[in-house]
Amino acid sequence: MEQLQQKVLQGEHLMYEEMLKAAQWLFDDQTPKDQMACFLTALSVKGETAHEVAALATIMRSFAREVAIQASGYMDNCGTGGDGLHTFNISTASAFVLAGAGVKIAKHGNRKISSSSGSSDVLEALGIHTAISIPQTIELLEKEGIAFLYAPNVHPKLKRIGEVRRSIGKPTIFNLVGPLTNPVPLSTQFTGINRPNFVMEYASVLQMLGRERAIVVSGPQGLDEASLAGQNTLVLVDKGDLIPFSLTAEDVGLPFAPLEAIRGGNADENAVLMRKLLAGEQSAYLDTVLFNTGIGLFGYGQAETIKEGVDMAKESIFSGRALQKLEAVVTFSEQIKKVEVSL
Q1: Is 153 labelled as part of a ligand binding site?
Q2: Is 165 annotated as ligand-binding?
Q3: Is 225 annotated as a binding residue?
Q4: Annotation-wise, does 90 bind a ligand?
Q5: Are 161 and 174 in contact (CB under 8 A)?
Q6: What predicted TM-score, i.e. pTM, was given to this entire model?
Q7: At 3, phi and psi to the nearest 5?
Q8: Is 340 helix (H, G, I), strand (E, B) or coil?
Q9: 91 a known binding residue?
Q10: Which tens digits make up the pLDDT trace of 276-305?
Q11: How many structural domains is the chain composed of?
Q12: 195 and 306 fall within a common domain
């Protein structure tokens, strides 16, 4: 392992098989945390490759708890985070709109590590219990077609790595790997990354990991979502093809808005924003969610175009179905809490 560490410190890329070995080392409880931090920092400075990301994702997923869901056709819209732009929880809000439009959502997520409010933080502020068991997660998926998988619940070996990541305080390869390690078998994926120059490589990682259809997006200034603030860089993975394209909000009938218009706050503040937009209150927050949901619906194959997906997203919100999905998950969570208290 020392040889691989030196290779990375010298700015050399690791082969897929070498990264498999390094990943096993990272997940070994005997590996010193300071060495882990040094290695992850060196990888970030060097710049991660598609093969390194795919190898780490493969090892991390091998350690995940099994989610033995019977049905297929699930989608994850988790992004990498780590963009440092302090926007509100766009993908979490979009998940409810996607579910309201009929998409089966199994969204992977975590607490804040390099952001103001992670998906699990805002979900708890909304009244959703994130630390639910695997059987409860499966029940929720089967009942409502949407559930949130809190990363530490499904990745028990992440605790030490999470401590190391927090000590580093900056995005690492684990930001890139997070969306790739959902233990639910996915048919489709829509993920945002904070590196516009890595979109094609990330799409190739999804292809390596067996996704038949997926979309990767990086917004202006490296936002890990599609943004109203200019040109977005995307790649569609479709049956083995990698199709790059670019898109602005105006292309699908939505207005331009600067990034400042979608700044978020802490978990409680973001929860308020989310409830307002799901209730149909017009704002740049709403338009941003419509944009991302439209892309997700196109990626899922439910819409033939992203413009059609945006129209479907509007219907999901203004019909009340998106908010109903939120309330259904909150109710399910409250029932679980009542049972736990009575035990």
Answers
A1: no
A2: yes
A3: yes
A4: yes
A5: yes
A6: 0.93
A7: -65, -40
A8: helix
A9: yes
A10: 999 999 999 999 999 999 999 999 999 999
A11: 2
A12: yes
